[in-house]
Every structure is written in C-alpha cells, then in structure tokens.
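As described in the Methods, two query proteins were run sequentially through the folding procedure within a single session, without resetting any intermediate state between them. The first query and its resulting structure tokens are shown here.
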Amino acid sequence: MSEFNVAVDFVLNGVERSVNVRSSDLLIDVLRDELNLKGTKRSCDVEVCGACTVLVDDLPVSSCTTLVADVEGRNVVTIEGVAGEQLSAVQQAFVSHGALQCGFCTPGMVLAVTSLLKQDAHPSDEKIRHYLRGNICRCTGYVKILEAVKSLA
C-alpha cells in the first residue's frame, strides 16, 4: 500500500488545527514531533500501558495506535489542554493525594479520569477501577490514584 499526504483538520485543545501528514502517521507522532506537545508519552506502542492516552471527542484513546487521519473533524485534548491558568480539579486531586511519583503515567491517568468524570460524576469504586484498567502505573500501587479519583466523585 502506498503512502500519500493528506490534510487533516481537527480541533486540538480548543484550537482548530490543520496538518499535512502521511496516511500512515500516528497521532502520537504528530502531537509530539510536529506539534511539540510532549506531555503525551510514548511507552508500549501497542495500546497496553495508557501513557499515550488523549481524549478524542471526550473519550480516551491510545494515540500510539490511532492514525492522525482518524481524528479528521474531531476534538482532541492532550494533557496540555486540560488546565488553564490553574490545574484542573483532576490534576489538583492527584497532587493533593500524592497520586503520582515519577509522573510518566500521570498525563494518561488524568485524561482517563477526566473522561470518566464527564460521563459519570459519581462513579463507584468498581467503575473507577474498570475505567483505569488500561492505564498502568509502575510506581504508586494505585491506592493514591483511587483516593484522588474518589475525592472528586
């Protein structure tokens, strides 16, 4: 299959963007390498760890397996688009509850929790665990992360 350039128009962190990309370009590569948004982390490249999580139309997706062409006309939010002048409520809860250590997984976790709370303002412990099942943290043991999310629910 031959590659060809395509123009992709989408809203990124509230701003309309247009990028000219190869048809095979992944969203993570465009975000990190072309748009210089380094908060989206690369780790597993196979949709397992959640470090590359971004929101597409308010739902978490793995940017390491999403073609940038698939976000045509859609709304994409990265960790850089979550907060304004101050930390978002989710980010503040993570800080307040010590729900981060090395910070590598934190952007993906914050975006997943942001999506969850938009869908369900009062999720059960079971729903929180289920929603975060695609985000791996190797440092915290998850207890503080769950406490942070529960404090918002």
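Immediately afterward, the second query was submitted; its sequence and tokens are:
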Amino acid sequence: MRIEHNDENELIAALIAGARSHIEAQTQTALIAQDWRVVLDAWPQPGRIIVRPGPLKALNATRVFDCNGDPHMIDPQAVAPDFGASTLAFVPWAMPVPGRIAAGIEIDVTVGFGDDAEDVPESLRQAIRMVVAHWYENRGFMGGNQNASSPATVAALIAPYRMLSI
C-alpha cells in the first residue's frame, strides 16, 4: 500500500489486527507466542492431545482436579510434548482420573512461532500484508462473496501452514 498521509492510521491498524486474526483462523495457528489453556473432562484414550492453535512451543503445567475441586500438579515427565506434530503424548492408564465430572484436567501451553513478528514465517507475513491491502482497497459491503474477503494468492501462501482436522 502506498499511503502518504496519516489520516487512516487507526483503520490500517484495525485491518492489520483483523488480517492477523483471519490468517490465524484459516491456518489454526497462533502467529505470535500466546498462552492457552486446554481443558478436558477426561484423558483421551489414544494417549494424544492435539494442541490447537499450534504450533506448540512449550508445555507449562498440567493439573488434575479432585472431587473437592482442588488442583493437583502432574509430574512434567508424565506428558511428553511433540513440538513437530503439535501434540502432547501420555500413557492414559497411568494418569490420575479427574475427580470432577467436567473440566477436570487443565493443561497450560504456549503456542506460536515466537515472540516477535520476525519469528513468523515470511509467507504468512506476506499473506497478512496482502489481506490488509485488499481490505483497504475493497472497503464496504462485499455482497456476501466469500472470495472477496482475501485474494486467491493468500490461500497459496498459507497452504503449507494449514492444520487440518481429520
């Protein structure tokens, strides 16, 4: 974008924030490091938890609540992070059973590519720039056209980073 005035700085800042959210939603990733809490009722039987949004950067804490609602920390060695697959692996029958019927397990993780915009892959940063420019040039009602929300080339830029669910 070539803008030679400051009159629309607030609009452009809002477009950047919106484009980042749009790309994060399309890829199911967190671009900048964020802390998230995964809440489960029970341990999944396959012994794996897929962390979304990804990519998984750190496993910070794992708690299981007893029937009184008191949290009990799980040994960090009991849950193994697989950073490449953005999953947490564990042995289901070795994990303590939560005492409360809902939200008995809390897992705190850090996800994202890094702490700064420079840590985000260039193709994702370029996709954000293209979405911002497109939205800036095509302001107003788009008539419900899904393709009008972002240029077709954005899909190609983000395709390698899309985390698809099976």
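The first helix runs from residue 9 to 27. We note this only descriptively and draw no conclusion about the first query from it.
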